[in-house]
Design brief:
This protein is mainly β. The protein has helices spanning 166-176, 178-184; strands at 6-22, 27-42, 45-49, 62-67, 75-91, 96-113, 122-124, 147-149, 153-156, 159-165, 189-190, 200-201, 205-216, 220-227, 235-237, 244-246, 257-264. Helix 1 runs antiparallel to helix 2 (178-184).
Length: 266
Amino acid sequence: MNVNGSSSSRMGLEWVFDFDRIKAINTSIRIDGKYYRYKGIDEVMVPSTSSLTDTDGQPYKYIGYYVGGNGNYNGFMTQRLNTNLTLVTHVPKIRMIFSLRFEGTLLNTRQNLSEYSGGTRSYVLDSQSDYLPSSTQTDIYNGASYVATYPLYYVSREDMETRIPFMEKFLWAAEHDKELYNELSKLVVKSTTGYMFRKQGYSSYFSANLNVSKEIGKYLTVSFFANNFFYSLQKIKNWQTGNEGSLFASSLVTPFNYGISFKLKL
């Protein structure tokens, strides 16, 4: 469901190449694949406050209004590129068909986004303990910095109609009013890791599926299939964390499974 303040874009491309049958081995070859890209940004203004109390012990008196919610990111972008190779060999003399399909994922990424068409939503911090934006770094997507997200404006519970620009007041308070600065810092949302906005993804990975069919008489066909039959132990690298892991028992590929089916013509 789309609402005012939210936007998304999708694009994709699919392809199929069927080559002439290789007569010498009675084998046909097909290459197919797909590229898909999605980007979505939420710019709906969302009110949020702190569960902490004021310095005098009273309930916190300010409410911040955040673009796209009070999380560090208000959207994401994904990209996926798959390509597959299928070989089908017919052996008429023994009435059998062998099908082998290699599936490759060349690109599979997701990146958290913090964007606002009216300005900047999140800022780089020099360290996790800071609350003020860095004076030397501006790229939240460099993948090596903690990030802070600020409300666009805030109001006091005592005056809900007066909207005060948060960043302007926060920077002023840092120099002139430490008590107000400490109170407003409770509305600052800081990332829990330095790589929250680093692109998530994996190095290329592959699997293979086998299908063998045999006609028995005029009416019966027996087929054996084995998906991901070599149960890949391939190592893949996580781009976001830099760690390596195995495809074994991974959700990225179809788990190894096999079976037999029967087809009866009546």
